[in-house]
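Late entry, guanosine-5'-monophosphate complex.
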Amino acid sequence: LQLERELGRAVRNGQIELHYQPQVRGDGTVTGVEALARWRHPSGTLLSPDVFIPLAEESTLINEIGLEVLRQACETLKRWSQSTKTRHLRIAVNVSPMQLMEEDFTPSLTTVIRQAGIDPALLELELTESALSTNASVIVDKMRAIEALGITWALDDFGTGYSSLATLRQLPVRKLKIDRQFVQEAAAQDSAQRLLGKIIEISQVMHMSALAEGVESVAQRDLLIGMGCDHFQGYLFARPMSESMLEDWLKAQ
Ligand code: G
Ligand code: G
Ligand code: MN
Ligand code: NA
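Prediction complete; structure with ligand written out below:
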């Protein structure tokens, strides 16, 4: 309860910050980053989104936090647009299903993009596959309206939700983010490895790109490249890091 009250003030007090984890191609080229929210709590600890996002989702706070995350991501894109080394990089932002269902979401998103003056094509929104288990048709309509703004969609934690292949075919999604459990099980089990291959084939049939999450070893990366996976994210390449650490990391690439 205490934490909930503090979270209510966190946005106004500038305690929500973004860390960024790079996303790369098979040859190591960086294509963008995923923005991951952190709460710099007054006690000094950096709280994980696993703690405060579910808490925020219990009330309308998720809308405020979600909008703040979008604002910061767009500000970063605006700064990056000033340098030839960073102007092509995309930022992927996680959107909570509740946030997407809120009626002001699309207009607020439009305002944030206009105010930052960024190219909407550099903003990618991630929705988890499980978000489609209820209200799928309403969600698909919202996703289409947002795609019409020039923003692209990625389906997060793919393979762990309950979306049908029929729904998947109708989604305005450019990228499937394969849940890290498939990547991690593939090394140990032959059946898991074949499943991973089939998931990548699904992305190809749907004309979507496939990003493997949680890639921690060269062996995993090479296996995935061999299966036709085209994007990668994981500790093998880089951990989530602050914006200034990311800028140093990018320079070193
Ligand atoms: O940052 P970390 O790797 O601990 O992320 C944990 C979880 O929190 C992930 O599932 C991620 O999708 C989620 N998450 C991180 N940032 C945000 C955010 O800004 N909004 C929402 N809705 N979820 C987020
Ligand atoms: O939104 P999503 O649930 O995909 O959030 C990404 C989460 O995965 C974050 O919590 C991030 O810290 C975590 N993560 C990123 N790379 C790796 C990795 O290589 N291994 C593991 N175990 N977790 C990772
Ligand atoms: Mn994500
Ligand atoms: Na994920």
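The CA atoms of residues 200 and 229 lie 6 Å apart. Will revisit in the morning.
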